[in-house]
UniProtKB/TrEMBL annotation, chains A, B:
It holds the Pfam family Bac_luciferase. InterPro entries: Diverse_substr_monoxygenases, Luciferase-like_dom, Luciferase-like_sf, NTA_MOA. Keywords: Flavoprotein, FMN, Monooxygenase, Oxidoreductase. This is FMN-dependent oxidoreductase (Nitrilotriacetate monooxygenase family). Coiled coil: none annotated. Residues 439-459 are annotated as: Disordered.
Length: 474, 474
């Protein structure tokens, strides 16, 4: 059940914004987030992560403001709460150039933009990065996002997932079905760049999209960038089971996480996939120092810089959170697992400094949403390993508390311990794609992943699969 | 009238495709376009251009295949004719990282994607590159492009420009009206990231778009990337007069170009703009060597590698060109100035090796579509200067004939001559934005440009300007 025989997946959870999940910590004297819109910020961060042999940088995203509280834009703008926020696909283009091995994951919503253009950007990134790209599929949850794309309000939750299913189907057809892997010849003798018998229209006509093709990018190293997903509503977990290769889970205890892991694996199996071809990450906040005392002092200093979200919320000024009365919050976390809500709750809970409610993370660890560890490098390594063991997790999506202090500490103090224990890689494997590194198999999607059907172009002619149906051929 | 007192604008016209405008030259033994989907290709190209102190790299784009001939995809795919083609916005993200001073222009169509997401990508690029971005506004012309975005056929020509006007209006509102230039405070004492009184919704409701805002990116160095445009239909020239800061002109002679320059300037004046705030480029093909004989030998070798488009066209296999009977072509070039058609014609004429029909470009120069020069560096410098003088051009958009041979020759043999004559810069000015370099004024759009009205946020409340109307406030 545990995967202690192989390295933990190490991911940094980030965003092109001054505040991702730790409001106010940009005021810490050592914090560097004033430079978040400069290439030097991302270049330095990428260098730290490659020094620590991280698997990936995982960029969150929203396409609107958290303006649903009474004061509208005032709180998110004054706090810098996920606004301004740089476009993650553009950031990945720059990071592809400034890093050599790091996996690069961007969040992109299937609800508002056309799949043809996105598929091209995704494939362009995978080609340029030589196979280091992942796509975190989201469906968006902010009313303001809908209003930025011509809609009066959010698309209803289940309809968003229906659109997402079809959006993914279009992307699969374009990236795997439109060009054969050996279509490009580049033959100077016959003066043939590509074999026209191996390139075709997809002629997708579905309920939400009509896309002729052909795809505009030749097959990239992974064909399809690795599919990430973070949905933990019932619909979201079924969706993850159908599509996701890496799942970013919520959950306040190892037991809660294990339940989600098992649910998603059973969804994967039910849709014909090999459940061993999924990987699971949870959030972790890790504050480490050479001694435990120093770590706690550091954590206390960071906490002093956090915005007092409780007070803001009392005044009705936390964007979106007026929907969450304090006493209902915990039940709500467990009941509703929409990723958007979880992110809000995570930020809020952090700010509230609520007592831990369930579980414990071992030495130095406390469970909030995901894992919070304060201690030495060895204690953090113990806690991460313990949580992974207890929950069936494959790794962690680690948040920056201050930039770049906490992640640099992690690289300098935790990674070497994990490396000594054989739980973190000491070198990258040259030429390995992100999927090969994360899943231990080939560069392209697994044969049981629903995208793989389109490697046989005759499957392009099948009618579009209905929402939620098995996507693998009968 | 002439601008010999200031450097010529030097631009490289490129595309993320094995073939941009010179079909078949990828078969040349020295050509490097096999690597067009690798970062090392673009890094090396950027380095050559910065060595030559070029103003910019200008990326063309299409969002569909040239499949309107009888054989559909066969000819464009086998020739690699603008397919595959990498996404230019992603390429610019990588180039922002691999270059330091080069201007970076991407083509993007206003017809198929939502303006909110594009505005964010554009502003992200401008922020990360520290103000080196330009946007070449196009409306698309391929039927296949429309089919990739859910439409049965092209949007009608004038409607495309109507959409483009509104798309630009939305982009202007987001980039100039939504955030005041001094909105971001980053004040650790008051714990205020941005002043909420200086950030606002745009609440755009027009015929084609409804966009609430706020814009998601804080003001970038240029606020609005430099607006390029290449339309030379009657509608396109009026559009250029309203919006464009740099116009890429067709025309087979200095006189024809001068007429277009004057037409567009008069459109600019009629819409309240300062016509001196526009710059004009034409295409140039430059093949140079230390001696004239070597240059002609080089040109002959390149021409031998070109695809025989005449024969292909005879067989009805040049995509799109079946609409252009040979005998009507010249009249058609003059009559119809749709940029899409011009690009097709340019490729076709090159392949046909037609005799020059009008005008001459001075020593070593011959007029095709734009200028073709074969000769020594001094002869090329003479021809470029002569054409700029005769036509009122500010500079040239130079095509790669073989990569990177011809552009490296240009940098090594033509640029030093222009530099000695004071017609090319010898150093970049550190910290200068692209707009400052091209237009010699401030980093933001000129006060008479229609975007500038939104620096006064009260103008956000005005009704959307009707198509073709003056956009400056009364």
């Amino acid at each position: 059940m545990t995967r202690h025989d192989r390295p933990l997946i190490l991911s940094l959870f980030e965003m092109g914004s001054v505040v991702h999940l730790s409001p106010g910590t940009w005021t810490h004297p050592e914090d560097r987030r004033h430079g978040v819109d400069s290439l030097s910020f991302w270049r330095e961060l990428g260098g730290i992560l490659e020094q620590g042999r991280f698997d990936q940088l995982f960029l969150a995203d929203v396409v609107g403001a958290y303006d649903s509280a009474e004061d509208g834009l005032r709180s998110p703008v004054s706090q810098g709460y996920q606004i301004p926020a740089l476009d993650p696909l553009i950031l990945l283009g720059a990071l592809a150039e400034s890093t050599d091995h790091l996996g690069l994951a961007a969040t992109f919503s299937t609800t508002y933009e056309p799949p043809f253009a996105f598929a091209r950007r995704l494939a362009t990134l995978d080609a340029l990065s030589e196979g280091r790209i992942a796509w975190n599929v989201v469906t968006s949850y902010l009313k303001n996002a809908a209003q930025n794309f011509g809609l009066p309000d959010q698309v209803q939750h289940d309809t968003r997932y229906e659109i997402a299913d079809e959006f993914l189907d279009v992307v699969y057809k374009l990236l795997l079905g439109s060009w054969d892997s050996d279509a490009v010849l580049g033959d100077t003798q016959t003066r043939t760049w590509a074999d026209p018998d191996k390139v075709r229209y997809i002629d997708h006509k579905g309920r939400h999209f009509s896309v002729r093709g052909p795809h505009l990018v030749a097959p990239s190293p992974q064909r399809l960038p690795v599919i990430f997903q973070a949905g933990s509503s019932l619909t979201g977990m079924a969706f993850a089971g159908r599509h996701a290769e890496v799942v970013f889970l919520g959950g306040n205890s190892p037991e809660a996480i294990r339940a989600n892991v098992e649910t998603i694996k059973s969804h994967a199996a039910a849709s014909g996939r090999d459940p061993d071809q999924l990987r699971f990450l949870a959030a972790a906040q890790v504050i480490v120092a050479p001694t435990e005392e120093q770590a706690h002092a550091k954590a206390a200093e960071i906490d002093r810089c956090r915005s007092d979200w409780a007070a803001l919320q009392k005044n009705g000024r936390i964007p979106g959170l007026e929907r969450y009365p304090h006493e209902e919050l915990v039940a709500d976390i467990i009941r509703r697992r929409d990723p958007g809500h979880e992110i809000l709750i995570r930020g809020w809970r952090e700010g509230q400094r609520v007592k831990d409610l369930r579980g414990s993370a071992g030495a130095g660890g406390r469970a909030r949403n995901g894992l919070r560890v304060v201690g030495t490098g060895a204690q953090a390594a113990d806690a991460l390993t313990h949580w992974a063991h207890e929950s069936g997790l494959d790794g962690f999506n680690i948040g920056n508390q201050i930039s770049f202090g906490t992640i640099r500490d992690f690289v300098e103090l935790v990674v070497p311990v994990l490396q000594r224990r054989g739980l973190a890689r000491t070198e990258y494997t040259p030429g390995q794609t992100l999927r090969e590194r994360l899943l231990g198999a080939g560069p392209g999607p697994h044969s049981t992943h629903p995208s793989s059907r389109y490697l046989d172009p005759s499957n392009l002619k099948l009618p579009a699969a209905p929402f939620g149906a098995r996507l693998t051929p009968a």
